[in-house]
């Protein structure tokens, strides 16, 4: 999203003249009305102003008289494809993205959503695992090279990033690295750059960051496990991280667990509450991160540490670590059931 959507924000105290000035001067061609806590109150287009003036409003009237208080909106984190489809369905040129509390997170325009993107941010794919739970499939093949449909898992992941505009890849290897390097080479067949870092001994998901070369671009790095299939909007993830200026961002998914019994609460011998088979909801780690250079350059070489432990240390040091809930398709191919599910899902999602 290249245009600065924050320049089109107005408060209810502004006038129609103010809205008209913004619409005429800013490329987004809309004005957005928010309150002091950034709750979305309404959207104003040129057409809204023309209709209001025809109904005897003046340029000094409040924007509340002209704004559409119920514009088409989308949830923050919605993917570009869904946003394009939404805007085309309703013949609108932009859509506000709001969080669960109704606060404006950003504003996506149809023009920007349709533009091909190009990011130099490094993408670090962790492809060194043994895939023990997928034996015997992994006895002679590293897990990321197992085929889902017609392609290896790792190639599907690579293509997902390429379609989002990323071209600078680093792949961490350990188990049967020669198969991965022989298949992907330097990335030229895909029009991208691939650099390999090899773990002589497993260093954990966080420790592999210490093997990255010195000449890596000084930009936030997207890190992902090499056995994950997902349609998450990586551009939106990166934008979220950059907006909030955190040391790291972790993607999380909501996980529901239903207790198969009636749960009883009490005070001594006295029952105070009963709930039949309640559902507990948690956020779980999705194995996808955005990491700032300050963090990944500070990881020592050959130092074993997992990402959760690395991020916990940042929290202890008072640094901001954010979570980015993902609602798109996501599958961690860790077990045989997951592998079989991926074979069914891939046809409609990735090929």
Automatic annotation (TrEMBL):
The lineage of its organism: Bacteria, Pseudomonadati, Pseudomonadota, Gammaproteobacteria, Aeromonadales. Pfam families: CBS (PF00571), NTP_transferase (PF00483). Residues 1-59, 67-123 form the CBS domain. InterPro entries: CBS_dom (IPR000644), CBS_dom_sf (IPR046342), Mannose-1P_guanyltransferase (IPR050486), NTP_transferase_dom (IPR005835), Nucleotide-diphossugar_trans (IPR029044). PANTHER family: SUGAR-1-PHOSPHATE GUANYL TRANSFERASE. It comes from the Bacteria. It comes from Zobellella endophytica. This is Alcohol dehydrogenase. SUPFAM superfamilies: CBS-domain pair, Nucleotide-diphospho-sugar transferases. Keywords: CBS domain. The keyword Heme does not apply. PROSITE patterns: CBS (PS51371). Coiled coil: none annotated.
